[in-house]
Amino acid sequence: MGFKVGVTSGLYYIARAEELGTMVRKLGYTLTRGTSAMELALDVPHEITETEGEEMRHIAKKQGVDLLLHGSLTIPMCIPERSDWRDAQDHMEKSVRSAVYAGCKYVNFHSCLNIWLELMTYTSRKLTMSFCDHEGRFISKILKESEDLREWFVRERWSEYAGDVLSRIEHQRISARMSAERGEVYVSEKRRELAEEISKKQQALVEKLSKGEISKAEAEKKMKLLDDKRKEREKEIIKKASEEQSKLVEKYFKDAIREKLRKGEKWESEELRAVVGIIDGYHIMAHYMFYTKDPIWVEMTKYYKDVMEKYKLDYNNKNWLDEAWKKAEEENDRKFKEFFYGVVGAKFLEGHIKRLLEWMEGDLIHKELKGKPELIENAKKLQIAIETPDARDPAHAGLYLIWHPAQIYVAVKMIRKNLKTNRVWMLQDFEHAATQGIDPIKEMEKIIKIIPDFGELTIAVHSNAPNPGHSHLPLEIGDVRIYKLLYYLMVTGFGKKQTVYLIYERGGGDDPFKQSVEVLKLCVKYLERNVHPDDLPPEFFGVKGLIAGDINRQRQIIEDHLTEPLKDLLEVPEEEWGFLSSAAQRKGKLKEWEKGKWR
Q1: What SS3 string covers 498-534?
Q2: Residue 506 has pLDDT above 80, yes or no
Q3: Is the pTM of this model over 0.85?
């Protein structure tokens, strides 16, 4: 239990530096920073081979350091599309494999890389999509599981998906049935009945005319009226048949779709041509969570009480979610959509991690690593961390699928509970949180009041200063912001029950680290003493203790330059070299005298 300080290696594709060209080089470079842990970043998910991993484990063991791994940065997690889900899972498995080979304590992944689905353009998307649930299964699975979801889908989405759900033969059967009941056959039958009725009336007129009961002119007039009536009645028949046929079209298609979904039968096409776009995958999943009162949904609503009160959450109203979405659209309400995307994103995280753990505890250990006890042990001990994502475009700050620390907390908490595992954690990155448009310190002040175990579920912190510009600047002595954030984590359990890591995430420049490691070691010193941020001593600010040498040196330089205002006013060499340097001047030792001030 306790704290360990570490640094990140950086990425070759960003720095283009030789020392980051391979994983062993990254490790060697990071070892020079004097920390007890190092988080190595993958440029590609399969960067660590089994051979290279053996060398890395040997180095780490000899040096007595903990290795940590930042997983692939190109994982399209939380996307409701099967090929994206498959690729995300593939990158996660490759990243885990790299971590196992290197003997890392944890592998961390960004909670998502994508912005709200309604903001995604068609430029980089496929023309067709295959929607999936949180576990990567085609959506027909959850439509079979939930009757309420089926009824919503049939009621609200039947016309958009009829061509995908029903086969050509099923379409033909419905068309034939409609034709028989209210189509051409029906119209022909009604017209025949009408013709017989008119014919009888015309025959009666003819008989009356032959008996002289009516005149020829009167008979012709009545014949014309009967003919006009026939034409009018025919129009009414066609119109009524058309209206009823429209109703039957909807009824028969809905009945056919409902029955097919209930049975879980294969769709005509799983490459969907839905005009509503990829966001419909989230609407389907959100309705599934709402109708089933999914534990993640219920838990997330607790942290959006104000939103739920505004929209009057009502599980008895089957149309509540549609009505709430419509209201949010009309009012352009970001807060409701933050909840909407966050809760569905959390469910997709659960599905990804469920499948990942099943693979780790199944095929990875029992097939790939069979006969390799050290690697099997690494796989059993490996932890998974979910990191706050950064907003890579300031225009999308706060518009990522799942990004807020409270959202990720709910996801991790419920994943641990639902999957019955203690291998999943949060990794806080307050600089990333700042890029999303929030003040991390103010947010943490709120969080520690409502989430008392927030820090307990955190395994590591990327401890950079919370700069919205995502600058990765070196840490500065005396930066109370960093200590405050770490202190807030500590009072909610950070480092109380397991070893946790304070990681400086390096930036660029000639010296990307500078005093960053010393700053974090100072933070650990006072965290371990449970010092409140308001009670930090002078040493934390660099004016006493081991790091105060710079202050003393600066004071000496100031004293050495006290006489500089007298330059050019005196004609004696003492103005430059001091009042005790005459002997040094006579002997030609002025340079040696100048150097002496550093002794």
Answers
A1: CEEEEEECCCCCCCCCCCHHHHHHHHHHHHHCCCCHH
A2: yes
A3: no
